[in-house]
């Protein structure tokens, strides 16, 4: 096993304190500017987890056989995972109803509402919005989360196929696919007639079950084993996808997601996923 600790605030004093808690003589190995790992023989790291949480440092205990070179597919959520916004909230802001929409979005991400029903409700409130408002959001507000480009570059270097599976919309998912050079994108399609949103969604909604299905489908098409897959998400509708993967990474996620994920990153960028799997 290896203990991986990372975060922009990490110092040598932090590493020394962790050494003291473990009572080991082996040294930390630096794997990135703000990331280190330490080979250890124990899985009793509760005191270290508590210390790291207090210091705003991410820590994880990773089996030595989990290395980037052994994976073949990474499936990722888009909103608040690959990008820093919830697209539907920003679309709603164009017509002055962001607070109402955002409240529903937040409840759905916490797992308190059925995702498909909540999405239909939110989209219905956008009826009449000009299609060009979607592209205004893309141009003015859509930004990648820190480390996204570095993480995708690491995937490419290790021949890991990448897919964004989003409960959001095609205009945004396809843009992110092109921006990052992802291999695949799956998302919802808004009905647009005469240049305006009708308030409807075409076809089946990309919900929690669909996200998991897309991961399993592509995994099988690529001839991969379950343990060769990674899923990254932040909301309750990502849980089935994360559970279907070999490892599930909760990225700045809701508590329900963190509690069920293989690894949780709360203080680092997406490039930290590569650090977890580097040895």
Which features characterize this protein?
279 residues; alpha/beta; 2 domains; 11 strands; Alpha-Beta Plaits; four-stranded antiparallel beta sheet
Textual characterization of the structure:
With 279 residues, this protein is α/β, with parallel strands linked by helices. It has two domains: 1-64, Alpha-Beta Plaits; 68-279, HAD superfamily/HAD-like (Rossmann fold), CATH 3.40.50. The chain has helices spanning 12-22, 46-55, 87-93, 98-109, 115-124, 132-140, 148-157, 170-180, 208-221, 239-244, 255-258, 272-276; strands at 2-6, 29-32, 35-39, 58-62, 73-76, 161-169, 184-193, 196-202, 229-233, 247-251, 263-265. It has a seven-stranded mixed sheet with strand order 8-7-6-5-9-10-11, with helices on both faces. It has a four-stranded antiparallel sheet with strand order 2-3-1-4. The termini are close together. A hairpin with a 2-residue loop joins strand 7 and strand 8 (196-202). Helix 1 packs antiparallel against helix 2 (46-55).
